[in-house]
Design goal:
The structure holds two protein chains of two kinds. Chain A is mainly alpha-helical. Chain A is about 80% helix and about 5% strand. Chain A has a domain at about 35-115. Chain B has a two-stranded antiparallel ribbon with strand order 1-2. Classes of the chains: A mainly alpha, B mainly alpha.
Amino acid sequence: MKNSPEATPGHSSALEWHTIAQSEAFRDLIALKKAFVVPAYIFFLLHYLALAVLLGYAPRLAAMQVIGTVNVAYLFALSQFVVGWVIAGLYLLVASKFDKLAEDILTQIQRQRGDR
Amino acid sequence: MSISLGIFLAFVGSTLAITWWAARRSHGSSAYFAAGRRITSWQNGFAVAGDFMSAASFLGVIGLIALQGFDGFLYSVGAFAAFVTVLLIVAEPLRNIGKYTMGDVLAYRMRPRPVRALAAISSLMTATFYMIAQMVGAGALATLLLADSGIRYHQAVIGVGILMMIYVIFGGMLATTWVQIVKAMLLSACALVLTVLVLRHFQFHLGDFFVAASQVAYHRNAAAVTSDFMQPGLRYHAPHGSLDLISLSLIFAFGTAGLPHILVKFYTVPDAKTARRSVVWAMILIGLFYVMTSILGLGAAILVGPDHIVTHGGTNLAAPLLAQALGGEIFLAVVSAVAFATILAVVAGLMISAATSFAHDFWLNIVHKGEEKRPGESVLVARIAALGVGAVSIAIALALGPGSNVGILALLGMAVAASANFPAIVLSIFWRRFNTAGAVSGLSVGMLATLILIVIGPNTMGIDSPGTIGAARHLIQANPWFPYENVGVITVPLGFLAAIMGTFLGREPAAEDRFDELIVRATTGFGAEKTSAH
């Protein structure tokens, strides 16, 4: 487990952290994370704020009835829940890959510290 | 003794048993402040849901939809959507970097004292405002729902206050977490049963239900009207409606990710992975619940009617009245009891986050510079802080009295979280250049701007007709200087701007150097706080 005593933080110099942060494995992991989180979050924010904009600036469109008396506004509001759940599901999927890469980096750090 | 009092006392009895069990198990800081970091993902998901879904959402949102139709549902959408930010941006780095509080993350790279001091002020302020709002709500509810039991406003406020102090002082985070889990289960089950009953009334024909919702008849200014409650615009309309809506959306999207009592829940799980899964659990529960609020709110508008709701207790009683219409007195009793359970679980969560911030950020890290002078001192200070915060909240809730406008207090808490805490957290985690000056100016400008704009806005300023009396009157009898009820559209960008400008005042090499350490630890979980033995 991760309970090894050398995992105690605070004993490393800024230089060591800099070396890890600049390592290829770490930079790849950050790039991979960004590739999911940044577009997913931007999409979420735009879709979410679009609801307020729709209601405020296109009230006629918002009030348009689509299925029976159910209108665009209500359906769009419900879509917020669907988008949230889908993003959460996708994130769980890709994050298991991040975990694996993070685990590799972690063992590497611990091995290096053990060597000293 | 009425049925609702009986059910409520059963809930109180079981939560006290939980507290007794938790008190026997917990020893030490990590056990008290973070439940030993042993909470599993589903448990924490339920606890976060139980911490977050306040009486304001159960009673308030359903009431808003029942009286103003679709526009009330926007609160539900915002409350759910907020958790996407929690999931993608804050939960995991927070768990990996911090120990007990939001201040841990903010102070990580910075000069700790000024940053922690502001983090503690912000946490205490948010928690106290929220807590007072919840307690006034509890008192007002008691006078309406438990009237036949002879329980008065002040008795309810003091009772709720004492119970939350018992949970927090004796049971710590472990008891609080389990009280919240039980409450989340009760609340979800209650909402589900009511939703099924509403739909059954329409023989499960959704089309018929929505047709009925599109022609709700009621009286407005003594004139009979029929409105389509599916249509937006009954609450937010020109000239300021659009920006108010965007403001509200911003406050929700960012505020939840800056609420100290939500953030501390992620320290109770073993690692970042569990924290992530627990957010997803919470999103499932919270999402389903808030989707149901639309059925329940519209159901109350159709089956109870806005006229009846307005004359029988107003917004807050729409859900209990709906339960009464569908299932008689027993249902009314169950829903009332669940509403009280909800309040108890939320105030306990607020209280422990306030006490933790005081003990850990203020006492341990500012007064004692990070070292306990005596073992167990932090926990003792937290218990005393809980007593103090509890007493102050009870006193203020008693002084305000029932019927005071507490919505403004909850709004203030959420707006401070979005405009002060959130920018500082995000910039700490993602911007190398961010430094102490930036954190200090971001936090203080965010807090002050929110406070000032709410005070000079339509929540406290307004000219009332001479007939308006008591708590319904605006505090300041003048036209509001700031036109929006929701301040986020100004304060959120202002909080970010102040944080960024403050940063550019000067360079802080130490803070920039520690960024590598922070990002490596946030990403890999290296050196993160471990699960503790009991």
